Amino acid sequence: MYKSFSMELAGRTLTVEVGRVAKQANGAALMHYGDTVVLATATASDKPRDGIDFFPLSVEYEEKLYAVGKIPGGFNKREGKASENAILTSRVIDRPMRPLFPKDYRNDVTLDNIVMSVDQDCSPELTAMIGSAIATSISDIPFDGPCASTQIGLVDGELVVNPTQSQKQVSDMALTVASTREKVIMIEAGANEVPEDVMIQAIFKAHEVNQEIIKFIDTIVAECGKTKHEYTSCAVPEELFAAIKEIVTPEEMEVAVFTDEKQIREENIRKITQKLEEAFADKEEWLAVLGEAIYQYQKKTVRKMILKDHKRPDGRAMNQIRHLAAEIDLLPRVHGSAMFTRGQTQILNICTLAPLSESQRLDGIDDMETSKRYMHHYNFPSFSVGETRPSRGPGRREIGHGALAERALVPVLPSEEEFPYAIRTVSETMESNGSTSQASICSSSMSLMAAGVPIKSAVAGISCGLVTGDTDDDYIVLTDIQGLEDFFGDMDFKVGGTHKGITAIQMDIKIHGLTRPIIEEAIRTTREARLYILDEVMAKAIAEPRKEVGKYAPKIDQISIDPQKIGDVVGKQGKVINKIIEETGVKIDISDDGSVSVCGTDQAMIDRAIQIIKSIVTEIEAGQIFTGKVVRIMNFGAFVELAPNKDGMIHISKLSDKRVAKVEDVVNIGDIVTVKVMEVDKMGRINLSMKPGDLTAKAEEPKEAKEETAAE
Question: Which residues cross the membrane (predicted)?
Answer without folding.
Answer: none
